[in-house]
Design a protein that fits this description.
Layout lengths: L3 E6 L6 E2 L5 E2 L8 E3 L2 E3 L9 H7 L6 E7 L8 E6 L3 H14 L2 H11 L1 H5 L8 E7 L5 H13 L4 E7 L3 H12 L7 E6 L3 H10 L6 E7 L8 H10 L1 E12 L4 H8 L15 H11 L3 E6 L2 E3 L9 H11 L4 H4 L2 H11 L5 E4 L2 E5 L2 E7 L1
Parallel strand pairs: 8-9, 8-11, 9-10, 11-12
Antiparallel strand pairs: 1-6, 2-3, 4-5, 6-7, 12-17, 13-17, 14-16, 15-16
Helix pairs in contact: 2-11, 3-5, 8-10
This protein binds S-adenosylmethionine.
């Protein structure tokens, strides 16, 4: 019989019980997360300081101790460490995800098919278009979109603000700009902040910043307050402006894992489980006009099923938000997660490989 896993948290607060006998921290026991007094289904929350801890200290007090107890508690305990990813580790795991998924190719399809007509009306003839990227990462997607804006508005000046808390991402973004000789008439301002810090800064300075195009691409999973973030950035739109949110779609494998197989995920995962369906609930509540474009995307997770595989290990880390999940998770949890990943609502199998459904929704909100 599998040993039962108990999770103990240093600086533990408000623990809630979950089905497999673990103590889960920072999770609303009803499976709901309150977002501005509204309830979104199946969104898991994090403690307020978790993101900060993860951002600021590699060995912050966020480690969890997994005590593998034999069922009758009579024998000596085996101790293993299971902890959340640091910012650096998350960035590395995300890179591995990008390398083995069609995430950026999927965005490229959207860029080519839909984005030109979406950005064509921005600014209504203004000579400067103000763009804001929130959680831009290394800026790869941002630069592609700026080029499309320029192609639809020849000769305009683009003023591009970037909010990105990870300093390494900002450095990589700056390098990408330096190496892009075609980016004429574009100015860049980087703010090494979280979206909430940026909002707070503007409010403290009593500043009303308006933008013609704001994008939140694959980053809402990590913000402190999702509904407020969407509302705040929507309020920053000028006339003839658009807000673009890119997020996993409500019929992706992520949705199945997060909603149907939640008990297969470890408590070390500190992100929000949010999909396009949840964003739509917020937008409906706001009463704003929006359009959704769905694009298929796949993530080859075959190596996740191979014990000891380096790439599979990184993938499982990204999936679970946990450092070295393959080697630190209790065997039972690992087996259950792999079983869930192989289910048809999560993945498809082709030529001996397993493709996780990473379908994306591009949500375009008008000002
Ligand atoms: C999954 S990456 C997406 C990067 C980029 N938008 C893309 O699609 O390639 C998420 C990004 O959001 C940033 N991020 C994390 N928490 C954030 C927050 N609270 N506010 C703003 N950005 C955040 C991370 O540093 C990371 O660069």
């Amino acid at each position: 019989m599998e040993p039962m896993a108990k999770v103990k948290r240093v600086l533990e607060r408000n623990p809630g019980k979950i089905a497999d006998g673990c103590l889960r921290v920072g999770v609303f026991s009803n499976g709901f997360c309150t977002l501005n007094c509204s309830k979104l289904p199946a969104v898991r929350s994090i403690e307020e300081d978790d993101e900060y801890d993860a951002r600021t200290a590699k060995d912050a007090s966020f480690e969890k101790e997994i005590l593998m107890n034999p069922p009758n508690n009579s024998e000596h305990c085996m101790t293993q460490l299971m902890r959340s990813l640091t910012v650096e580790e998350y960035a590395k795991a995300f890179k591995s995800f990008l390398d083995h998924s069609t995430e950026h190719q999927c965005m490229e399809q959207f860029n080519q098919k839909e984005l030109p007509s979406i950005v064509a009306g921005l600014g209504n003839g203004k000579s400067t278009i103000h763009v804001l990227g929130v959680g831009s990462g290394t800026g790869e997607q941002d630069l592609k979109m700026i080029r499309i804006i320029q192609s639809k508005h020849p000769g305009v000046l683009v003023k591009n603000d970037v909010i990105e808390p990870n300093p390494q991402h900002i450095l990589a973004y700056k390098d990408a700009v330096r190496n892009s000789s075609d980016l004429k008439n574009v100015s860049f301002t980087w703010h090494q902040l979280t979206s909430m810090e940026y909002e707070k800064q503007l409010k403290e300075q009593n500043m009303q910043k308006k933008y013609d195009f704001i994008h939140l691409i694959q980053m809402l999973y990590r913000v402190e307050d999702i509904a407020n973030t969407i509302m705040f950035f929507h309020s920053c739109l000028d006339c003839y402006a658009k807000l673009l949110i890119i997020i996993v779609s409500g019929h992706s494998g992520w949705t199945s894992i997060w909603k149907n197989y939640r008990d297969c995920l470890p408590p070390t995962d500190s992100g929000h489980y949010i999909t396009a369906d949840d964003v739509k609930v917020v937008l409906e509540g706001m009463g704003v006009k929006y359009q959704v474009y769905d694009f298929p995307s796949a993530w080859d997770i075959t190596e996740c099923f191979v014990d000891g595989d380096h790439i599979g290990g990184h993938m499982l880390d990204f999936l679970t938000g946990t450092k070295d999940f393959m080697n630190t998770a209790p065997l039972d949890l690992k087996q259950r997660l792999r079983h869930a990943l192989g289910q048809p609502e999560c993945s498809t199998k082709k030529d001996g490989r397993v493709f996780f459904r990473n379908d994306l929704s591009m949500i375009v909100v008008s000002s």
